[in-house]
Amino acid sequence: MEHIWTPWRYTYITNVDRVPGCVFCMLLENGDDRSNLILYRGELCFIVLNLYPYTSGHLMVIPYQHEHSLAAFDVATTTEMMELTKRTQVILQGEYSPDGFNMGLNLGRAAGAGVKEHLHFHVVPRWIGDANFMTSIAETRVLPEDLTQTYERLIKHFI
Question: Is 3 a catalytic residue?
Fold first, then answer.
C-alpha cells in the first residue's frame, strides 16, 4: 500500500478554524475577484484557485450556498458544480497538459477538509513524478509558477 503524506498542510489545517467566518463566503463578499483568485462566477457556483495548491492549476468549484454536506444541495446546484468541474478539466488539460487529475470532495475534518463547513470540489492536475523527493524529505512543494501566473493563464478561458 502506498501512503501519500501532506505535512506542509498541517499549519493551514490547524489554523483555519481560527479565522472568523467562512473563507469562501468572505471571498465572495470582498468583490475583488482578481486579488481573491476567483476565475469565474456562475449562477450557483464559482471557481477559485486554491491558495495552498498541491500542483499548479489546482482549483476549486464551490457552491455559493454555505453548506457542509453534498446532500444539502439541490439538483440545479450539483448539476452546475459538475458541469463547471468538467469545464475546468478541459481548460486545464488544454493549458497545462497534465498526465491525469485528482478530483473530489473532502467532507469533514477526518476526510481531510481544510474548510469543513463550506463544501468545495477540488480539481488537481497531476503529472507523473510531481510528488518528488522535496515533498518527502523537505516537507516542501515545488510549484513551477506562482498563483498570479496561474490566474493569468486560466482567466482568459473564463471571460
Answer: no
